[in-house]
Amino acid sequence: MKLLIRPAPEVAIKSKPVRQQQMRQLRQNIRKLLARLDYNIRVDGSWDRVDVELPDGLGLEGPVIDELVRIPGISTIQEIGVFPFVGIDDVCEKAIEAYAERLSGQTFAVRVRRHGSHEFRSIDLERSVGAALLEASNASGVNLKKPDLEVRIEINEETFHIAHRRHEGLGGYPLGTVETVMTLVSGGYDSSVAAYLMMRRGIRSHFLFFNLGGTAHEVGVRQVVHYLWQRYGASHSVKFISVPFDGVVAEIMRSVNHRHWGVVLKRQMLKAAAEIARDYSATGLVMGDAVAQVSSQTLTNLNVVDRASDEVVLRPLIAMDKQEIIRIARDIGTEPFARNMPEYCGVISSKPVTRARLHRVEEDEANLNPEVLAQAVASRSDAMVSSLLDSITTPEEIELVQTPSVADVIIDVRHPSEEQRAPLSLTNNQVLKIPFYELNQQLSELSGDRQYLLYCDRGTMSRLHAGHLRAEGHSNVKVYTPAA
To answer: Nearest-CA neighbor of 451 among 433, 481, 476?
Structure first.
């Protein structure tokens, strides 16, 4: 089978050099990601399309399409059946196989394109295929102007193609065709959606996390960042940077008027982010602010916050309401992370200012010890997002079980999207599907006299959560690591 990929319409209207660069990058991204499924997948193309040819008989169609619909820069993916051309009757038979069931109750039109010389015209083949489909299906009729479904056929000298199902892509630009940015992430709805929208626009993004006091929060943020990168940005290597910011928070609370705490905290983050961004060649900062969502996000306060840095600050959510943000988070799979993300609420003013004046905020900031912010920036740590979960440590040593006892209950803690792609099925053991973000709530409802083995593909998430559960007193939790 072949797949015909069209870029987002915006790519087609670019100048020739820009279009060539973007299509070259798109092919490179597709080639890199599909190679993880099979090195024999061929990726070629031209100025307005990418052609993907799959090896026969390996059942790669589903996994490949699942990968393609998550690659920025793709508008549509069309499944194409390729057959040797032996005659019009054979074309009609293949069209019936592909479309007869799908045409039930639908109007249709047959569109034919020919390349080369043949003993028939395109309209002759359209009429023959149309008549065959009408006879073999329950189609409601032919409608050449506004059909419910188009049957597209392309004839070459020795082969012909029939277009099958069409899939919508992410749109946007190919990742890596726009500059690099630094996205400030907290793990909540806003920052994860903002990061996704930047990647969809073709912008390579490092992830910057300000730890305000707690390992549990950082563990949660690492998980959502890795998930976002794995699903939407894995064609490019990026970093996760963690800055210990609890000292800065304490200094703000000691030295700043409480009404300015939120605005000053944002300004300190922006100052630190601008300095760190330069070390990673990032040309902009991304924040998840939506205007008037909270007191620090009034237009007046956002203006005061932005004066803390000379870097451009991008806010892709600026005009969205919360329900729209949550809907996108649900669509891209980050909603469960955000809903269960541990939060730190140490900087809450009783009467936060909504119309801060720059000179008064700067006067308050003058009371801060600049060494505290400098020390936080200097103490930052970074890790490649691709290996982010490998660097998570658990609070306790966890026993690994390769062969479970019959009475052991296996808990599949993977995200539902991962579990659906590769379901876990065991003959002798009960398997419960409890995503990691629901473990704490549901484990207390399970029997205390059974042994539970947590499972995930790589063993990282299962060890992490088993460690935390054992630290909380659940001694009947271990990790299932089946032998390869």
So the answer is: 476
HSE toward the beta carbon, residue 376, CA cutoff 13 A: 26
Please state, in angstroms and rounded to a whole number, the distance separating the CA atoms of residues 329 and 323. 10
- CA–chain centroid gap for 454, Å, is 25
Among 391, 426, 459, identify where a domain stops: 391
Q: Which strand (E) or helix (H) includes residue 325?
A: helix 322-332
Q: Are residues 281 and 198 in the same domain?
A: yes
pTM flag (> 0.85):
no
* Helix, coil or strand: residue 78: strand
What DSSP string runs through 91-104? HHHHHHHHHTGGGT
- B/e letters for 108-126, b = 16+ CB within 10 Å, e = fewer, are bbbebebeeeeeeeeeebb
Tokens coding 391? 């660097």
Instruction: Give backbone dihedrals phi and psi of 150, rounded to 5 degrees, phi first.
Output: -105, 135
If you write DSSP's letter for every residue of 264-315 in order, what string do you get? HHHHHHHHHHHHHHHHTT--EEE----TTSSGGGSHHHHHHHHTT-SSEEE-
CB atoms within 10 A of CB 432: 13
β-pair type (49-53, 42-46): antiparallel
Least confident of 39-43, 167-171, 454-458, 469-473: 469-473
Phi, psi of 134 (to 5 degrees): -60, -40
Rounded to whole angstroms, the Cα distance separating 471 from 455 reads: 18
Q: Is 173 within the bounds of a domain?
A: no
**Per-residue model confidence as pLDDT tens digits over 50-91:** 999 998 878 888 899 999 999 999 999 999 888 999 999 999
Catalytic member of 155, 304, 439, 456: 456
N-terminal to C-terminal alpha carbon distance within the chain: 31
Q: Taking residues 220-228, what's their average pLDDT?
A: 92
Task: Specify the CATH number for the domain of residue 315.
Answer: 3.40.50.620
345: annotated active-site residue: no
Provide the residue type at 188 as one letter. G
CA atoms within 13 A on the CB side of 248: 27
**CATH number for position 452:** 3.40.250.10
